[in-house]
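> @MW can you paste both from yesterday?
MW: sure, first one:
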Amino acid sequence: MKQNLSITAALGIITILLGAFGAHLLKEKLTVDSLQSFETAVRYQMYHVIVLLFVNTYANFSVKVKRIISLFFFGGILLFSGSIYLITIGDIPAKSIWFVTPLGGISFMIGWAIMLRAFVKK
């Protein structure tokens, strides 16, 4: 769990850096729609960083459940937020990676479903 918490802390730092980058440097460079998409990616990343802190410090989850939820949330951040970052600031056409963002959303949902199942089982 130490590794999950370390990755989560690193993702938290990256989230703050990306949020500041978006607020201060991208405001003039991106269209309103692209900036909103970028902000959505940052927001979803931060939500899941906060939940990852909870998941990995919650005593009533087994190590296995913590690991599985963390993997799905890490994957969701990478696929969902990462693809939006690439589309908005990486000059990668949305048409070429359109399928990645929904995969990230599905990864988030699976992580949440596993968490729900763990709560229900208790």
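MW: second:
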Amino acid sequence: MSNLHNTIEYINSLSQSDPRELIDRSEQRFKNIIRDVSDKVENDAGLQIVMLAGPSASGKTTTAQKLAEEFTRRGMKTYRVSLDDFYLDRTDIPGYSEGNPDYETVFALDLPLIEKCLNSLLRGETTVMPTFDFVSGKRKDESYEITLGKSDAIVVEGLHALNPIITDKLPHERILKIYISVSSRIYDENNKIILNKRNMRFIRRMVRDYNFRGSSVENTYELWDNVRSGEDKYLFPYSGLADMRINSVHLSEPCLFKETALSLLRDADLDGERAKDAARLIRALEKFNSISPEMVPETSLLREFLG
């Protein structure tokens, strides 16, 4: 176990006596992490590119935004870049012609263009950056320009941001590699796992899919198998290459997600192993006290999932 108070007894005790305090402690812990990363970049004048990678529902998007905001507050004009904008057109994705496209592989990205753009930025050149349309599965005609000044920075986020196929093409002294994930389980006082790390990410994603994408629990489960396979093959083998690691867990989240997640899971039409998994999640979530999501600050990482 980590040095977090990641036990259900602690979470339930504080959520009952002072739910605001539980939320505030979770939020302050994450603010401290953003501060520590920002200190590292600010104190090392050579660093200009932060490569941020993590699995699905780890909070990459919000963390990239928070880092960019903090860097800018410290006088470093900062841009955010998503590796998703470097996807190849759908028909060029490996396996597409065989009817089994692999959207998770690093080779689904335009690797020469990534190398060209990032190194161009490091040379201080005005660089045209692509944007991708996931509806049509093609790169958009619209693009945008970035010019990176000497005191500026960029945060590059994506599943493959730590892959050596990408990072080895960049000067290592100019980049900071960060791995973000939910890196703590929730235990009971007997050290029995109540929610594991993937459970917590799945709950985040399920609620986000429902809130933002009108997607059903059934569809989240359908996608989850491929997501997990892609992470196992293309992300986790490179997590050890990170210079810094971010644990995005918020101990308040089981209480905050509880009511929505339970409603979704109970209403889902599942069978087989998925039905068994949903039943396990229901039993786990029922053990937590509920906290209204309305108590969560608008700036919280959890808003990426709660709305």
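> thanks! The two ends are 30 Å apart (CA to CA).
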